[in-house]
Each structure stands twice: as structure tokens, then as C-alpha cells.
Amino acid sequence: MRNILLTIEYDGTNYAGWQVQPNGLAIQQVLEEALERLLKEQVRLYSSGRTDAGVHAMAMPASFTTTRDIPLKAFTAGLNGLIPPDIAVKDAREVPLEFNPRREATLKHYCYSLHLGQNRSPLRRLYSWHVRGSLDVGAMRIAAGHFVGEHDFASFRGTGCAAKTTIRVVKSVTLSENGEFLQIDVKGVGFLRNMVRIMTGTLVEVGLGRRNPESILDLLRVPDRSAAGVTAPPQGLSLVEVSFGSFFAEDKKP
Amino acid sequence: MRNILLTIEYDGTNYAGWQVQPNGLAIQQVLEEALERLLKEQVRLYSSGRTDAGVHAMAMPASFTTTRDIPLKAFTAGLNGLIPPDIAVKDAREVPLEFNPRREATLKHYCYSLHLGQNRSPLRRLYSWHVRGSLDVGAMRIAAGHFVGEHDFASFRGTGCAAKTTIRVVKSVTLSENGEFLQIDVKGVGFLRNMVRIMTGTLVEVGLGRRNPESILDLLRVPDRSAAGVTAPPQGLSLVEVSFGSFFAEDKKP
Q: Which residues hold substrate (chains A, B) (predicted)?
């Protein structure tokens, strides 16, 4: 038995999200069906996590086991010939059988792109949230700093979230300005459903002067989803990278 | 009578190009129909030039005349409410009646984006050309330098081009590497049909080692379309900006 780890890039625009579900086509489903055609056996993909409908990924890790003795290239070039242009396998490698992308993930990096132009941008419409009005980026940076650390993020949890605990560790939240665009990079050990999008919606309200940076502290103290900001729309969000800490480094030891 | 100059951004993916034509929907047509709904009079848009089907624009200038006394905001926010999300008016201003975007254009800036990754990129598929294999960017830069100046670009003219002369002035061709992407910026006084795309296709053949940089000199000396490279696909190309030299500066003089 082999355990193969794929790294997948996708444009989430036309999908109902990563995970197989009854309504709409999922990215996981497209990949599993293509792998089954390639391998002539049933395949189950295990990812590091899910992404919502419309959310993108530059590098989603997902693994599967197979008994077939097929060269790794079949899982990049070969698989890419079987899936639509808005999904692509960027890398495939063999990993130890005990490797599980969800369990071994030590850090997840998401980025959210805001477009602050006066008028909407056709060329960035599928990959950013258009926010009119000027944002106080200084105030947003102060607010962003309050997220860092281990906190109860219950105020930043979307409906339908099945997580047992709402305690999460956020490592960093950085804001970078680039012309009409403001990019918010969020790194953390794990996230609740919609958490980055609600954090972003709340930061935008700070930027627009509708709440002050210190309101984040209250939201982290007293769980209250209705007191937090709106859920930013999905198309601005991308999963950038998932790190596996020392797993692969330790694997090389005798 | 007023002469209004619009600056338009569009994602060309779903259009048959800028210019109204019998097969497929043109960007010009979408805008003219929206303007006619707004103004209740017939409108004819005059652009700085055309773009092919699938080519994008960050800032296409196009002007029209109207007798209506409507505030300029109607031609940005108002018009954007009447057109689809893949087209947007970024700016509207009143210009002298004698201003014509084609005649007054002094410099056009196009950029072409190449994706050099081993596997295709879902997130950039609509805005780049995926070229497999490593490119010799040094050789491409030497070749690019040969384009600069006033030359007969007949070897770089697409079929159906109706230009009377094939002499054109290219001001600069610069290549910038950014991770897996190589951006080619071309600035010139004017271009023949498909000229930037054929220049790009030829530069890629230089990069792949299939022709040497000096072959550009032969192509500029002896008109022969079949000796030049392939026409690079449209989705990698964007019109970045059109400059009008001193027209508006001189207009401010008494």
C-alpha cells in the first residue's frame, strides 16, 4: 500500500467548496472521480481541511492510499489531463503510510484580498472583495494584532461549525497595501468555519470607522457571533499553504 | 455637445473582442447599449484601438459625444450598474470636442503574462499563457532589444490586418521575472493586428532555444509572417494604458 500526497491548486468560483456534499459539485469529488478512472479502484482523498464554496486554494494538501504501482507523474501530468482547467495538481509525492494531512498540519496560511478602488475591478472580481470608501489601515493593524495568540474564537464561528472546541491559536495577521489592494495574511494552527472571513469582515468595519480596534478584545472575551462583523464574501479568500512542521524532517531520521 | 472620455477595464474572456462584429458579443456593443439606455439617444464609442477576442484591458480609453446634461458620475457608478461584472468604467471626464482617442494616442502599453510552471495554474489560467519547459530569459532579452525602434513589422502582422503601412515604432520591450511568471511589457506608438502576440510567440521560441535572438533582425528586414513565431494565445495579453502625450497639458493653456 502507498500513501500519495497531492498539492492542489484550484479556482473555487464554480464549485460548492472542497468537500463532497449533496448540493453542487465539490472539488474533492472531481479529483476522486478522476483518480478512480486512473486507478480503477475506489479512492478517498484526505485533505488538511475544507474550503467554502467560492474560496480558492494555491496549495491544498490531500492524500490517498492506493495499491497500484503507478509512477508519481501519473498523479500530476496524468491526472491534470483528466480534470477541468480550474483544478490542477501541482505536486505529488509518496509519504509514510501513517501521514494524515489533517492531523499533521502545524500551520495554515490564508490570505484575503480586498479591493479598495472607487469602482469595481473586472479583472480581480473573482479573487477579491470590493470595499468602497477609504480604510484606516493603521486602526486595522492594531485590531489585527489583538487576534494573535490563543483565544476563544466563538464570536468568529460561522453557523454549522461542528468543532468541539472554539479555542484556536492565531500566529500572525499582517496587512500589506499594494495600490488599490489590501492583502490580509492570516496564519494559524487551525481555524473554525468561516473564521478568517468573519475576522476579515470585522477588520473592514474597523477600517471604515464603524467599530474601534479594542472591540476585538471584547469579542474574544465574550462569545457573541452577532456582535462580530459580517462574513466577508468567499471569493477574496485563498488557502496559500499548509505546513507540516517537522514531520517530513523527522521521517528522514533512521 | 459634450465629448466624454471613459476609461474602461474589462476581462475579455467571454467576449468576441472590443469591436462590434457579426459573430459574438463585443465589449463596445455592451457599453454602447448601456449608454443608450442611460441617455435615450444613439451613442457611438470611439476607442484608442481594438483588442482581440479573449484579450483584457486595464484601461481602454473610449469617447462619445452627447447632448445630455448629465453629471459625470452617471458614466461611472451609474453605467457600472447597467453592465455585467466583467466590464467596468473606472473613470469618466469631459474632454475637448476635437479629442479623438485613436488620433491623440501617443503611446500604448501592453503586457503579456507567461506562466512557466511545470503544471498549469487554475488561478491564472484566464490571464496567462502556460509554457512548459525552462526559458532562457537572457536570450529573450537580447531578442526583445532588437524590436525597439522604427521597423517594418510586416512579419508580425496577423491575417486580416487592414493597416496601410506596416512601419511601426516600438519604444521598449522589457521582461520581468516573478516566481513562476514572466511578464513582457511592450510599449509602442501603435501596433498591427496580433503584433504583440506574434512578438511574444517569437520571443518564447527564442527562450526555448528553437531560434536565436538574431533571427528577429532577419524578420524585421524581410517581411515573412510564416518565418516568425506562433501567435501567443489571447488570454495572456492585457492593454495596460494609453497615453495622450501633451494633449491634456496643452489644453489647459489659455
A: 110
Residue at B106: amino acid letter = T
A122 touches chain B (CB under 8 A): yes
Cα(B245)–Cα(A167) distance, integer angstroms: 59
Task: Give the pLDDT confidence score for residue B249 in this predicted structure.
Answer: 67
> Distance of CA A190 to CAs A150, A179, A184, A185, B8, Å?
11, 30, 17, 14, 41
Substitution target from B6, B11, B119 for chain A, most A beta carbons within 10 A: B119
Expressed in angstroms, the distance from the first to the final Cα of chain A is 21
C-alpha pair distances (Å), A223 with each of A144, A186, B119, B203? 18, 21, 44, 58
| CA–CA separation, B113 and A246 (whole Å) | 36
Please, which pLDDT band fits residue A254 given cuts at 50, 70 and 90?
Answer: very low
Which is nearest to B149 in space by CA: B126, B123, B136, B168? B168
Give the gap in angstroms from C-alpha A166 to the nearest C-alpha of chain B.
32
Amino acid making up residue B61: P
Among positive and negative, which fits the CA dihedral A133, A137, A142, A148? positive
- Known binder of ligand: residue B110? yes
Domains in chain A (CATH in brackets) are 2-104 (3.30.70.580), 107-241 (3.30.70.660)
Is the pLDDT confidence value at B225 over 90?
Answer: yes
Burial of A79 (0-12, 13-18, 19+ CB in 10 A): buried
Q: What is the pLDDT of residues A156-209, one digit of tens each?
A: 999 888 889 999 999 999 999 999 999 999 999 999 999 999 999 999 999 999
pLDDT > 60? residue B70: yes
d(CA A189, CA A199): 15
ipTM score assigned to the predicted complex: 0.91
CA angle A25, A26, A32 (to 5 degrees): 110
pLDDT tens for each residue of B5-17 = 999 999 999 999 9
Whether A179 has its CB under 8 Å from any CB of chain B: the answer is no
